[in-house]
Amino acid sequence: MWESIAAGTISGVIAGLIVAAALGVLNQWNRPRFQLRQVAPNTAVLTYSRWPPVVIGGSYALERGSVLSTAEGFRAGTGGIYLVGPSETVLRTDAGLGELNVGEVVDISYRFAPWFPLDRSKRMMRAVSWEVDPFDTQPRWWRWWGWKRYTLVLHPS
Predict the structure, then answer these.
(1) CB 112, CB 50: distance < 8 Å
(2) What does pTM read for this prediction?
(3) For residue 54, how many C-alpha atoms fall within 13 Å in the half-sphere facing its CB?
(4) Which of 93, 109, 121, 134 has the fewest CB atoms within 10 Å of its CB?
(5) Residues of the chain falling short of pLDDT 70
(6) Is the torsion defined by CA of 91, 96, 98, 103 positive or negative?
(7) In what order do the strands lie in the sheet with 34-40?
(8) Could you tell me if 69 and 95 are in contact, meaning their C-beta atoms sit under 8 angstroms apart?
(9) Separation of alpha carbons 76 and 67, rounded Å
C-alpha cells in the first residue's frame, strides 16, 4: 500500500515537472524573437528571447541609415553584436542620421552563431567580425543557417 502511494506521488511530481517544462518552452516560443524598447533618449534595449546565440550583422532605418550600435564605450561598430539568449542588450539608437523615435521601424540582419564549446573563443571572435547590410540578405525560410532579416518597431518602455 505504501509503495503504491509513494510511486503515485513520485510519478505525479515527475509528470508535473514535465508539464511545467513544456509550458515554459511554449511560453518562450510564443514571444517574438527580437523586441526593441526605448528606455531613454538615444538608448534602447534589444530583447532576444530564443536560445541559440545569434549575431546582429547590421541595422537600417529609413532615412537614417544604420542606427543601432552597442552602448559600450570601447566598441563603435554597428554590426557584429553577439547575443546569447535569452538576454537583453542595451543599444544606442543615434548611430545614423539623427535619433530613432518611438514607432519607427528598424530592419536588422541576423545569423545564428556557432555555439560549440570547443574553441569557443575563436568562434565568438570570428562571429563578432561578421557584418552585413540588412538589404544584402536574401532570407530563405528553409535554411537555418545564413543571414536572415527581421523587422523591429521601437516600442516605448
Answers:
(1) no
(2) 0.78
(3) 27
(4) 121
(5) 72-78, 95-96, 116-124, 139, 141, 143-144
(6) negative
(7) 69-70, 87-92, 43-48, 34-40, 148-156, 105-112, 54-61, 81-83
(8) yes
(9) 12
DSSP track, 32-66 = -SEEEEEEETTEEEEEE-SSS-EEEEEEEETTTBS
Tell me the three state secondary structure of residue 108: strand
Is residue 94 classed exposed, middle or buried when 0-12, 13-18 and 19+ CB atoms within 10 A define those classes? middle
Other Cβ atoms closer than 10 A to 12: 10
Strands 54-61 and 81-83: antiparallel
Grid cell for residue 135? 538589404
Q: Which triple of cell numbers denotes residue 128?
A: 563578432
**Cell of residue 29, nine digits:** 516560443
pLDDT per position as a tens digit, 69-100: 887 654 556 677 888 878 999 988 876 677 78
126 vs 24, 32, 83, 100, CA distance in Å? Answer: 32, 27, 14, 29
